[in-house]
Amino acid sequence: MTCGARRPRARPCGCAKGGTWADITFPGGLAGRCPRRKRLDGLLADAAIAAGAELRDCTRATAVRFDDDRAVGVRLRHGETVDEVDADLVVGADGRRSFVAREVGAEEYMAYDAPRAMYWAYWDAPAAWSSAEYPFDMYVGHVGPNVHALFQTDGGQLLAGSLPPADDVEAWRSDARTTLRADLAREPVIGPLLGGVAPDSEVRGTIKERYFFRRAAGQGWVLVGDAGHHKDFVIGDGITEALLQARRLAAVIAGGGTDAALECWWRERDVRALPAYYWGREEGAVGEPGTLESLVIGRIARSTLLQAKAARLPLHECSAYDAVPFSTVLRALLEGLARGKPGVIPEFLAQAKRIRAYERAMKERKALIPACEQP
Ligand SMILES: Cc1cc2nc3c(=O)[nH]c(=O)nc-3n(C[C@H](O)[C@H](O)[C@H](O)COP(=O)(O)OP(=O)(O)OC[C@H]3O[C@@H](n4cnc5c(N)ncnc54)[C@H](O)[C@@H]3O)c2cc1C
What we know:
three-stranded antiparallel sheet, seven-stranded mixed sheet, binds flavin-adenine dinucleotide, D-Amino Acid Oxidase, Chain A, domain 2, 12 helices, about 40% helix, alpha+beta, FAD/NAD(P)-binding domain
């Protein structure tokens, strides 16, 4: 995703697992970007207004209105002013703690509590960031127990963050600023860059997330983006997911948006979203990266074909299991055994189990689609 008039130059995403590194270069000059929300949200609002939407800023939906079981509108509050709005379709695009989802009673499925928390802050990019030492726009490293991320963002700043296991957050909560600073200073890529200095912003954190699918369509209502589906943010995919969902939903609504068509959109959403959900679940799992994972990353680093496949992941053009096929994992297993590392066997068996679970879930979700053919 790019934003702003001047398109910044596109550099790879650096990924580290254990001590192994792979660069992922996106095709066609595409790049991973990390715009600040205040900028991105303004751009989205401007685009919506240009397309004919009426924007009511600083306004909260405080009730969904029903006629029998059918949603027929919302109640809005702006300061002391309350307004009732009629709607053929109520679209809940109100994020992971969706109020609309609560009002319509959208049930959750395939859900789990986040295994990791996240703390992050912003630094003015030091001069070294533009040097040959840091030839990437983004870095995601899983070297010890914590996952770390480093992104270029607006205003010449860098976002750096740490994702400790949720069980460790007590140690962070009392002094997140000092803990984040010390944790990042130990990180092999981020530490030398930021030099252990204090951030130029407050430290933010989130410690109790939940990842889920929710029923996303019902009588007179629909949920889009995080309101209906929230996944582990370790893979940085939620905004892409929300935009792709919105694009498909808009086409369904423009085509008439019948209950049957919306149900079909929901079931297809599940199938489309499942690969990244499982990918996020794997990447966010607690523990240090295994030997097998490091060997797989090493194989990606040595193969332009695997790098090209991995670059298609954030574009939602393939699943993690297509990008890193079973044959690659098998070769990594053999490499590990040849290097005298028998610990790769249980890792391999665990991976095979995860792939089977994903394939089962995909089959179940796909089976729900034919029942709702487009009218
Ligand atoms: C810590 C963290 C890090 C993340 N990192 C990344 C990342 O690097 N890359 C990425 O792509 N994604 C990331 N995500 C996920 C991403 O933020 C979400 O997937 C994405 O923002 C979902 O967009 P959305 O529009 O569905 O919901 P949101 O962005 O949450 O927007 C919902 C909007 O609805 C409004 N709203 C809520 N309730 C009401 C109400 N009652 N009435 C009116 N308005 C209401 C909110 O104010 C908000 O503006 C991260 C998430 C977290 C928590």
